[in-house]
């Protein structure tokens, strides 16, 4: 690719806001976009059949309609499957030039892009993708299609310019007799405004060719509206010529009407005696003698106006002049088409410029513009002034979209944007920086608390959308620039950090940034980095806490619990889980625990000890594609009887995660594993999980059990869950049995299985068999429970 074309591609990519890494992601969605390929082929058939001219032109190239459609399908497959490199960009630009040379109209090409884009977006919308991934795929697809269209349009314009330049060179080589056409051509080439260009054409015709009147009328609905006029030596030109000329019945004698309908030159070399003008001659006024020519002006093969020329001389339009003015009319039409294309391109560029700096839905500044604005505010500080940034998150938006659909969700977002503007203006600026995240900045630090109060007050107010009342919570994070140097990215990061802490409080809260938040982030990062070496260095230990039947004291199994030995001390999971739970280290830890637990259970069986084990697994591990294959391989290498391995799933998994793992848990049950719902009562959708997840055991969270004797409501919860487990054939396990009194009360309630420090603390793998033997010898005596926790 030439240097200028290469720069053009780079400029278009920057303008649209798409980079190479973005383009490389689109092929991942190609199959989803092309899932309805036969239907897409039908769309292309219809688009070809709707335009007879374009259909004939493409058939001349392809040979048949099927071949033309297949060629178009291949072009769209290349767009979706192959990245846009320099060679492909050159081909697209050349294709635009080829369309221009072939005579394909830009409106047909634009219609093709609109039709196919709508189809591909509809295919994406039907694809089984998460909402965020679907939105990202749709955004990439739109930008990629827009880039493709702009490259072809650029090539098309270049083809127009080349063709126009070629015609101009040809016309300029004609003798002095063609000075009129030369002047018109110069007027067409020099004018950047359509009205100025047409006026120049009329002026040249009057000045160079002795016409006494020249005018251009442009179609406006069913009328020809005068756009440009030039005359000399004529004080009262024909009124009818220059008023609105209607195209409906009753105006057939008007040559302008005939030119529009026939798309051909209309000539009268003797206006006074021409019978074809009968019925219209009375409206000519002073134009009732001499010669008259009306030429249709065509753009994209459609009549868009007429050029009328009048000479006092009869017989003025001989064959040479007719050919001259036919060419001139065509040139004017091409110039009008070029102007229209340039105007459309300029509109697109203006829209793209706006979209590159604004959110398309709300019209608010986007993240880039907000960052630039914050940078300007920081750069303009003086006298110790500060800049405050507010990060605002509208929460619960997945539920709103699920309830109202994306159109309803967009309406809610627009309402939230309006309210946020009302709350912040005139003291600051507001932008949208994420799906349901907004950003505000202000120099009025003294007004920050008032602005936060206004946001927290106005955004959660009920909103009427699509006949439904919608309520949404919001959280706010605030960061104020320090006295020293500060860049916009740092200020934005701090505001988002404060926002995340506000959201952790449950919504409807505000949190101000302080240095402790960064310290916490650094601490978690350091913890994550250290834990990454825990498995390779052998620093993890697996402990087992026994589970017993509270009524009979029979041992039911043991729960595997991980401990990290770091620098000679034990690090409990509660310390390092927050650092790794959203990273790949959690999956690595899950598999280490699962492998060790299965290996240990298998080893105990070989020693004559039958101890079932329970293992906690995160939703991230269960969702991963390799979970079932790896589990099958593990059980093949260490076979266990049915019921000897139990997988514990946290009740706090989200609704979406529950939907993703349900089928896999069913498969685990087919393999002889049992499923437990762990820490029941701590999540936000307990009853949903009770119905949805295929579990065999409910584990009541220890926080209900520890306060059993002090809070009667806890006993009611345990009793209700005991009844639910009984009637649904599930087992109930209580955690946190840490005193004799609690144990006895659980026995009275009717609970069967339990675990806790009152029975035994977690034990090392080599200690558990001995504990089991001792328990079996004296475990029936309730006085022999762990004395450290007896009350």
UniProtKB/TrEMBL annotation:
SUPFAM superfamilies: EAL domain-like (SSF141868), GAF domain-like (SSF55781), Globin-like (SSF46458), Nucleotide cyclase (SSF55073). Residues 524-776 form the EAL domain. It holds the Pfam family EAL. It comes from the Bacteria. InterPro entries: Cyclic-di-GMP_PDE-like, EAL_dom, EAL_sf, GAF, GAF-like_dom_sf, GGDEF_dom, Globin-like_sf, Globin-sensor_dom. SMART domains: EAL, GAF, GGDEF. PANTHER family: CYCLIC DI-GMP PHOSPHODIESTERASE PA2567 (PTHR33121:SF19), CYCLIC DI-GMP PHOSPHODIESTERASE PDEF (PTHR33121). NCBIfam families: GGDEF. This is Diguanylate cyclase DosC.
């Amino acid at each position: 690719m030439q240097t200028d074309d290469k720069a053009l591609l780079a400029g278009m990519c920057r303008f649209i806001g798409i980079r190479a890494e973005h383009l490389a992601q689109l092929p991942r969605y190609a199959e989803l976009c092309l899932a309805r390929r036969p239907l897409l082929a039908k769309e292309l058939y219809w688009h070809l059949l709707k335009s007879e001219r374009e259909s004939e032109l493409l058939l001349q190239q392809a040979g048949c309609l099927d071949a033309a459609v297949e060629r178009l399908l291949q072009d769209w497959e290349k767009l979706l499957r192959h990245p846009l490199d320099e060679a492909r960009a050159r081909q697209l630009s050349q294709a635009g030039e080829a369309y221009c040379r072939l005579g394909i109209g830009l409106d047909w090409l634009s219609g093709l892009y609109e039709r196919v884009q709508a189809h591909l977006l509809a295919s994406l919308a039907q694809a089984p993708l998460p909402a965020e991934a679907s939105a990202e795929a749709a955004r990439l697809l739109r930008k990629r299609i827009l880039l493709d269209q702009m490259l072809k349009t650029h090539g098309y314009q270049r083809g127009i310019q080349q063709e126009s330049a070629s015609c101009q060179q040809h016309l300029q080589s004609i003798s002095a007799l063609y000075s009129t056409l030369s002047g018109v051509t110069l007027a067409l080439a020099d004018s950047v405004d359509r009205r100025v260009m047409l006026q120049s054409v009329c002026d040249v015709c009057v000045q160079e060719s002795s016409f006494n009147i020249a005018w251009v009328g442009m179609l406006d609905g069913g009328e020809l509206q005068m756009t440009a006029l030039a005359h000399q030596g004529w004080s009262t030109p024909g009124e009818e010529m220059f008023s609105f000329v209607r195209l409906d019945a009753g105006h057939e004698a008007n040559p302008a009407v005939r030119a529009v309908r026939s798309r051909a030159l209309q000539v009268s070399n003797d206006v006074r005696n021409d019978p074809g003008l009968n019925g219209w001659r009375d409206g000519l006024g002073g134009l009732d003698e001499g010669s008259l020519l009306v030429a249709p002006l065509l753009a994209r093969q459609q009549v868009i106006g007429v050029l009328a020329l009048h000479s006092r001389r009869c017989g003025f339009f001989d064959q040479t002049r007719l050919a001259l003015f036919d060419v001139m009319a065509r040139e004017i039409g091409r110039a009008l088409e070029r102007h229209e294309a340039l105007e459309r391109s300029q509109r697109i560029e203006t829209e793209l410029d706006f979209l590159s700096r604004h959110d398309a839905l709300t019209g608010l500044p986007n993240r880039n513009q907000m960052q630039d604005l914050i940078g300007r505010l920081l750069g303009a500080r003086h006298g110790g002034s500060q800049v405050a940034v507010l990060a605002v998150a509208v929460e619960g938006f997945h539920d709103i979209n699920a309830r109202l659909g994306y159109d309803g969700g967009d309406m809610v977002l627009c309402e939230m944007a309006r309210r946020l503007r009302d709350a912040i203006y005139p003291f600051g600026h507001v932008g949208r920086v994420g799906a349901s995240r907004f950003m505000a900045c202000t120099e009025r630090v003294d007004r920050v608390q008032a602005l936060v109060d206004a946001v927290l007050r106005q955004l959660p107010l009920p909103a009427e959308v699509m006949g439904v009342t919608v309520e949404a919570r919001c959280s706010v994070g605030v960061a104020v620039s320090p006295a020293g140097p500060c860049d916009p990215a740092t200020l934005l990061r701090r505001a988002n950090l404060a926002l995340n802490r506000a959201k952790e409080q449950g919504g409807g809260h505000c949190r101000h940034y302080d240095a402790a938040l960064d310290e916490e982030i650094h601490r978690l990062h350091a913890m994550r980095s250290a834990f990454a070496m825990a498995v390779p260095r052998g620093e993890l230990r697996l402990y087992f806490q026994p589970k017993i039947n509270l009524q009979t004291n029979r041992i039911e199994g043991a729960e595997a619990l991980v401990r990290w030995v770091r620098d000679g001390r034990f690090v409990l999971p509660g310390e390092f889980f927050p650092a790794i739970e959203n990273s790949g280290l959690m999956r690595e830890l899950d598999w280490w625990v699962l492998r060790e637990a299965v290996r240990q259970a298998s080893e105990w069986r070989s020693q004559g000890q039958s101890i079932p084990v329970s293992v906690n697994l995160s939703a991230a591990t269960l969702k991963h594609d390799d979970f079932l294959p790896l589990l099958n391989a593990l059980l093949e290498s260490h076979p266990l009887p049915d019921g000897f391995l139990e997988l514990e799933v946290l009740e706090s998994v989200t609704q979406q995660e529950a939907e993703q793992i349900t089928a896999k848990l069913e498969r685990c049950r087919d393999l002889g594993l049992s499923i437990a719902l762990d820490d029941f009562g701590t999540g936000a959708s307990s009853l949903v999980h009770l119905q949805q997840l295929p579990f065999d055991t409910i584990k009541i969270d220890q926080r209900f059990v520890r306060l059993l004797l002090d809070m009667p409501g806890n006993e009611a919860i345990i009793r209700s869950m005991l009844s639910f487990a009984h009637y649904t054939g599930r087992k109930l396990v209580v955690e946190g049995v840490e005193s004799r009194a609690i144990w006895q009360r659980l026995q009275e309630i009717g609970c069967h299985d339990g675990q806790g420090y009152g029975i035994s603390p977690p034990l090392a793998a080599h200690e558990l068999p001995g504990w089991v033997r001792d328990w079996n010898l004296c475990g029936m005596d309730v006085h022999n429970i762990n004395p450290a926790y007896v009350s």
